[in-house]
Amino acid sequence: MAKRSGSTRVYSTDPAARCPGCLRLLGECVCANPPASAPTAPKQGVVRVGRETKGRKGAGVTVITGLALPPDALKALAQKLKKRCGVGGAVKDGVIELQGEQRDAACALLEAEGFSVKRAGG
Question: Cα separation of 25 and 6, whole Å?
Answer without folding.
Answer: 17
